[in-house]
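Can anyone check this?
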Amino acid sequence: MSNDTVRQWKELLKKKLASAQKDERTEEEKKEDELRLFTKYYTEWRGGDKTDSSYKNIPRFYYRLPADDEILLQKLREESRAVFLQRKSRELLDNEELQNLWFLLDKNQVLPMAGEEAMINYDSFLKVGETAGEKCKQFFTARVYAKLLHNDPYGRISIMQFFNYVMRKVWLHQTRIGLSLYDVAGQGYLRESDLENYILELIPTLPQLDGLEKSFYSFYVCTAVRKFFFFLDPLRTGKIKIQDILACSFLDDLLELRDEELSKESQESNWFSAPSALRVYGQYLNLDKDHNGMLSKEELSRYGTGTLTSIFLDRIYQECLTYDGEMDYKTYLDFVLALENRKEPAALQYIFKILDMENKGHLNVFTLNYFFRVRNTVSERMGQDTRQQEITLLFFSFGQGDTVTSILIDLNGFWTYENREVLVANDDSNTDMDDT
């Protein structure tokens, strides 16, 4: 600090002391004034206002989302996302470019053929990549070639396998862009209403759904959306990542309905088909005896073979969302998906939550005995010994969760398990008779 600066400070302090007795300011005002003066002289001592501003060179990495009342910013963001997605869409191969790619691959195939498969070696592969166009360059890499290389003695890959790989990648990107158009929040996930809009607008493009009445569209959409959310949103956050939708097989099943010649067997096994959706909704209407659009516990007890235990039904209505003690169609769909897919982790999680009466994350002896009570009563009526019948939670670890849950919640499932050896013997006897 220079001598001039020290001298200025001394003079200033003398003046302050001289006027201290006449000063009528409050203590807070005095402190503010002192801080202001200190800042002023300290800044001058450091070299004026030439402060370090290097932080301004750091690129901005966070942009807050527009608030609900910032309509203009919201519109701007939506338009910019739409332009971005359109640009990404134009980067994809169209039908004409795909046909040209197939022509080039076929023209550069390398003999001999592997059975009925046309093959191409690495040199010809690179040659096609140079002439196929800018959009195709991402597919003509050593990594892609190595991924498709199997046991060909000449080190070649199948042209058909490579072309299917390209088609699959193009389809995934097209689908991702299509789903992203419904991502209102622009955060990479779809809410329930977003997915409902996507499927609703997809219906006219699926020939297998041509026969659906428009009055049934809302129920169909609800039925389709529930499968996505039941399996892909186990924590019930109300949203699903677009990446998870693309990674699962559900979208493939849904888009399979584009096939006009889809077999009856495929339709019956496809949750998204018209026969499947009508089956589930028809079951719901048949159970609804009082026709109020909801299911009471007594009405739900007739589900399937009517052998679900009363204790399990009590827990369903205690744990699941109901309205004045009755279940709506959406809750019913979760119930059906759980019982029809008991080997799936999401279904086991659903049923385990019902069984876990004390919300401890495990089933203790008291809980097991509670659910066994009805089972044992039925067993005793059938003359079976119940003393040696025990089930441990290790069954869940060894992939036996569906067996355990069937025994605990379904009298028919318990009877099947208890008589499994007899049933297997009968099947073997029938097989032997068929062979003769």
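Reply from J.R.: I decoded it. The beta strands are 119-120, 157-158, 189-191, 239-241.
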